[in-house]
Design goal:
Largest sheet: 7 strands, mixed
Cofactor: pyridoxal 5'-phosphate
Protein name: L-threonine aldolase
Strand content: 15-25%
Helix content: 40-55%
Pfam family, one: Beta_elim_lyase
CATH topology of the largest domain: Aspartate Aminotransferase, domain 2
CATH superfamily of the largest domain: Type I PLP-dependent aspartate aminotransferase-like (Major domain)
Family: Belongs to the threonine aldolase family.
Number of strands: 13
GO biological process, one term: L-threonine catabolic process
Distance between the termini: 21 Å
Number of helices: 15
Bound molecules: pyridoxal-5'-phosphate, threonine
C-alpha cells in the first residue's frame, strides 16, 4: 500500500465480513445475558435453548457445540470424523486448506488434507470420484479416505445447490467417508437458495455443519451442529482438550440465540447478499470490468482497470488484492446501500476518466 493510501481516511472497508460490527439485537442479548449468574461450561439455559432452536430450524434432533471461531469449529468437527491416518478431501481454495494454519491437521492428529480443483470454488462428483479411485483404500502405505469437506457458501462466493451437495455426499458415503460442511457463510447461501436448512444439509447427506454466526452479525459465535449423533459422542472431550470449552458459555449462546431468533440471521444475510448483487452489477457494467465468479452470496471477485482500482483505494475504499489481478470485495449485514451507491459512482467517474 502506498503511503498516501495508508494516510487516507477509510471511506468503507470491503475487505471482509470479518471487519463488520455486530447486530444490535445480538449485542443487546449479550448485555442481558451478562446479568446474574448461570451454570458454566455450556450447562446454562441459553445453550439448551440454542439446541432447541437449531433442532426446530433443521427439522431434526441436532447436537450442538458452540465455539468462538470458525477455525475451531472446522478443525474440531474434522477431528470427530477423521483418524490421524485419515484423508480429508476438500477444495484447493478451501479455508481449511489455505487459511487455518494447520489447525485441521493438528486437531486430527495429523490427517492429510487432499485439495482438489474445481471451477468457481466448487467440488464436483467427477473430481472426487477420480481422486478416490487412486486413493489406495485399504493399502497400509496410504492415508485412508475419511471425510469430505465442503464450504457453503464457497470461498469463491458461489453456492452449492441441494442436488449438488447430495451428488457429492453420495460419492463420499459410498466410500465410507463422513461429510463436513464449513458454513462460515452458510446463512448467505441459505438466503440465496431460499430453501429449508435441512434440504441443503442433512437431507443432502451432510453429517456435521460448522455454522458461522460471526460473519453474519454475531460478535464471535460459531456452532458445530451434528446431524449424526453417533459422530458427536466424543466431541465434548475433543473441544475441552483443545481449550475451546468456554467457561461462561452462555455468552456464546446468547449471541447465537438472538441471531437465530425471528429469522434475524436470514434477514441480515439477505441484506448482505443484496448489497453484493447491487455492487457486482454496477461493477460489471464498467468498461474493462470482469467478474471472475458468479456472485451468489456476499463475496465479489472482480478484475477492474488498474486506474479504477487504484483510484478507489486512493479515495479511501479498502478491499483485498487477491491472486493475480483479482480484487475481492465482501459486503456485510450492515453495509449501507448509500456506501455502495457512492462507491459505484466514483468507480464510474474513474472509468470515464481512464
Ligand atoms: C470460508 C471460511 N471458513 C472458515 C473461516 C474461519 O473463521 P475464523 O476466522 O473465525 O477462524 C473463515 C474466516 O473468515 C472463512 O472465510
Ligand atoms: C482469512 C480470510 O480468508 C477470512 N476467512 C476472510 O474471508 O476474510
Amino acid at each position: 500500500m502506498t503511503d498516501a493510501i495508508l494516510t487516507t481516511p477509510v471511506l468503507y472497508d470491503f475487505r471482509s465480513d470479518n471487519v463488520a460490527g455486530a447486530a444490535p439485537e445480538v449485542v443487546n442479548a449479550l448485555a442481558a445475558a451478562a446479568i446474574g449468574s448461570a451454570d458454566p461450561y455450556g450447562q446454562d439455559p441459553l445453550t439448551a435453548g440454542v439446541t432447541r432452536r437449531l433442532s426446530a430450524l433443521f427439522e431434526a434432533e441436532v447436537t450442538v457445540f458452540p465455539v468462538a471461531t470458525g477455525t475451531a469449529a472446522n478443525a474440531l468437527a474434522l477431528s470427530a470424523l477423521v483418524p490421524p491416518y485419515g484423508a480429508v478431501y476438500c477444495h484447493q481454495e478451501s479455508h481449511i486448506h489455505v487459511d487455518e494454519c494447520g489447525a485441521p491437521e493438528m486437531a486430527t492428529g495429523g490427517a492429510k488434507l487432499v485439495p482438489l480443483a474445481g471451477e468457481c470454488g466448487k467440488l464436483t462428483p467427477a473430481a472426487l470420484t477420480a481422486a478416490l479411485a487412486g486413493a489406495g483404500i485399504g493399502v497400509v502405505h496410504r492415508v485412508q479416505p475419511a471425510a469430505l469437506s465442503l464450504t457453503q457458501a464457497t470461498e469463491a462466493g458461489t453456492v452449492y445447490r441441494p442436488q449438488e451437495v447430495a451428488a457429492l455426499t453420495d460419492v463420499a458415503h459410498a466410500h465410507g467417508m463422513a461429510v463436513h460442511m464449513d458454513g462460515a457463510r452458510f446463512v448467505n447461501a441459505l438466503a440465496r437458495l431460499g430453501c429449508a436448512p435441512a434440504e441443503v444439509t442433512w437431507k443432502a447427506g451432510v453429517d456435521v455443519l460448522s455454522l458461522g454466526g460471526t460473519k453474519g452479525g454475531c460478535l464471535a459465535a460459531e456452532a458445530v451442529v451434528f446431524f449424526n449423533p453417533a459422530l458427536a459422542e466424543d466431541f465434548g472431550f475433543l473441544r475441552k482438550r483443545a481449550g475451546h470449552l468456554v467457561s461462561k458459555g452462555r455468552f456464546l449462546s446468547a449471541q447465537l440465540d438472538a441471531w437465530l431468533a425471528d429469522d434475524l440471521w436470514l434477514r441480515l444475510a439477505r441484506h448482505a447478499n443484496a448489497m453484493a448483487d447491487r455492487l457486482s452489477q454496477g461493477l460489471a457494467a464498467l468498461p474493462g470490468a470482469e467478474l471472475a465468479h458468479p456472485v451468489e452470496a456476499n463475496e465479489i471477485f472482480v478484475r477492474l482497470p488498474a486506474a479504477v482500482a487504484d483510484g478507489l483505494e486512493a479515495a479511501g475504499y479498502r478491499f483485498y488484492r487477491w491472486e493475480g489481478d483479482l480484487l475481492r470485495l465482501v459486503t456485510a449485514f450492515d453495509t449501507p446501500q448509500a456506501v455502495v451507491n457512492s462507491f459505484l459512482k466514483i468507480a464510474k467517474d474513474l472509468s470515464e476518466k481512464a
